[in-house]
Amino acid sequence: MRSATVPGPSRSWSPPASEADGRELAVYVHWPFCVSKCPYCDFNSHVRESIDEAGWREALIADLRHEAALTAGASVVSIFFGGGTPSLMDAATTAAIIDAIAALWPVAPGVEITLEANPTSVEAARFAGFARAGVNRVSLGLQALDDASLQMLGRPHDVAQGLAALDVAQANFGRVSFDLIYTRPGQTLASWQAELQRALGFGTEHLSLYQLTIEPKTRFASLHASGKLLLPDEEASADLFELTREMTAAAGLPAYEVSNHARAGAESRHNLAYWTYADYVGVGPGAHGRRRHAATVRTMKPEGWLAGVRAAGHGIAEETALDAPTRGQEALLMGLRLTDGIDPGRFEARTGVALDEAIDPQSLAELRGLGLVAPAGGNLRLTAAGAPLLNAILARLVAG
User: What is the pTM for the complete model shown?
Assistant: First the structure.
């Protein structure tokens, strides 16, 4: 039934070069609930003993209805269920939300529908239901391939459960990605090489490989501040980053973004919408959106968001018009994360600002002289030497 409404993925899809009319739209749906709070996580996630799932389903659809009224004429090219842990929701809720999106907007052929999932046996048992609901891509939070690291990271699964869930995911979805965290305490080049080699052998089309970072107001932040959590130093982290790039490229999953690696045509279309500054709407607690040159932020606390939707028909806490310089800065910050860099034509079409107006010319000249930034095929991109220095380069490049 849903395949007639929501087409399956097209492997030949690529983002259009220019979208001045803003007709392409990504939709993000935030499910804020988790079984437990991971000590490294600063996402808007919450643990609750019970959830009124029917009430949440109705509120999310109401929030979507509000956004649809403001984006008339747009065509949805991707849907992403993030969290929190969306694999904790009932498949019937997922199906109802997908059907609501298809009723509120035209849905493009080849739409990508991703759901983030934890690899516990309870959640893996739901995968077939999610596939029937219309989900055609799953992103699995494996995070590590050894039990000691999983315990340190506060994950609710062990390696055996994770790999069993990966098997179930690959049996149910045409497109599968999973996450791993590296630069963990005590991690060496040799141990990461063995772990990544094992990961590459599972045959998925996409890997998200993140360096462990200490986020403020997390339990890891407290442990790190007290000297009880030590991460690899800057030089070791750079070596691990370089090894990751070399191994994934050799395996046919080169980096297309700082932390994301994929076979050709298997890139995350939803995340590409963010990185290329396309319009996207975000619903659910704490969700962010960028649409029609406005930024939206939903109320963070689940109960506050729910009360807001019931009172006003949406959960928006802040809505801010973005002027041209701000749009240029945001697009620059996102676009240089991509290995292919920034297409000047797309940049101007989506921001209303020429790329050279968003960049400090003196800094650009200096960074080019150092071999950290280079033009490629008309795009502005970081070189291999510049990629590990992304944040420092961005701080220098932004005009004004």
Answer: 0.88
